[in-house]
Design brief:
- This protein is of the alpha/beta class.
- The chain has two domains: 6-38 and 176-245, Rossmann fold, CATH 3.40.50.10090; 41-164, Rossmann fold (3-Layer(aba) Sandwich), CATH 3.40.50.10090.
- 33% of the residues lie in helices and 23% in strands.
- The protein contains nine helices and eleven strands.
- The chain has helices spanning 20-28, 46-50, 66-78, 94-99, 118-126, 144-151, 185-194, 210-218, 235-245, and strands at 6-9, 31-34, 38-42, 60-63, 88-91, 110-113, 133-138, 156-166, 179-182, 204-208, 223-227.
- It has a six-stranded mixed β-sheet.
- The longest helix is centred in the first third of the chain and has 13 residues, at 66-78.
- It is elongated and about 60 Å long.
- 28% of the residues are buried.
Length: 246
């Protein structure tokens, strides 16, 4: 089997911040590059008006990512909405909850957050089933949250405030990496939209999560480095385990 000498991570460059990927690259003397395959595009707030979505008709906001936080408060500003202090915010984890401090003072807001795992977050929402939720999301999102809300007869409105679009990867056409790490089905779509004739050949693919793995299989590719697994809870752990096994 071919050795791994280079890795492309399909996520934004963390800049000067050192990550587990940098530690992995230093340990095994790997060429490491970051390049997002997708990017977020804001949806104009006026589109919410066209769809008759009124933020103030709701008593709680569901926020599952930093992009959701950024775009919710952008829409609030564009629409010149005065959000009452009684509004409740349900964040998928504490990190997203703390990120809202970029736009609002936490002590003046009613914040609820899960522990990072979706089942626990959904249980939290169910314990507040009388709220009228506004689910802030992208045009590409997992169906689990709206399906859960529907199945439990919880009142909610889905508000698409941003879109996930392909990044331009044309400069990578003649560049080869031993491993490419993908984190969403949208990454796989972007790969083939940019390079319709892509062939895996000797490239090893690392895929994060069941939905990404499904997209990899549907594209007739092989997920050589699936993650997470019981032995490799992170992408870097999975890649390192693969390198050690060579």
């Amino acid at each position: 089997m071919l050795k791994v000498k280079s890795i492309l991570v399909s996520q934004p460059d963390p800049g000067e911040k050192k990550t587990a990927y940098h530690a992995l690259a230093e340990k095994y003397k790997l060429k490491l590059d970051f390049r997002p395959f997708i990017q977020v595009e804001s949806v104009p707030a006026k589109e919410l008006r066209k769809k008759r979505i009124n933020i103030l008709d709701h008593t709680a906001i569901i926020l599952t990512s930093r992009s959701a936080v950024d775009n919710f408060f952008r829409c609030v500003e564009e629409l010149k909405v005065e959000v009452p202090t009684t509004m409740k915010y349900f964040c998928v984890n504490e990190g997203i909850s703390l990120y809202t401090q970029k736009y609002t003072v936490l002590r003046k807001r009613k914040m609820f957050f899960g522990k990072g795992r979706e089942p626990e977050f959904l249980k939290l929402i169910k314990s507040h089933s009388k709220e009228k939720y506004l689910f802030v999301c992208s045009d590409i999102r997992k169906p689990s949250i709206p399906t859960f809300l529907e199945d439990n007869n919880i009142n909610f409105t889905e508000a698409i405030m941003y879109r996930t679009v392909n990044a331009d990867l044309s400069d990578l056409e003649d560049v080869f990496y031993d491993v490419i790490a993908f984190f969403s089905p949208a990454d796989i779509k972007s790969l083939f939209d940019n390079f319709p004739d892509f062939k895996q050949n000797h490239t090893r693919i690392a895929g994060w999560g069941a939905s990404t793995n499904k997209a990899i299989e549907e594209a007739n590719l092989v997920n050589n480095i699936p993650a997470p697994t019981p032995d490799s809870p992170s992408m870097t752990a999975a890649i390192e385990a693969y390198i050690k096994a060579l």
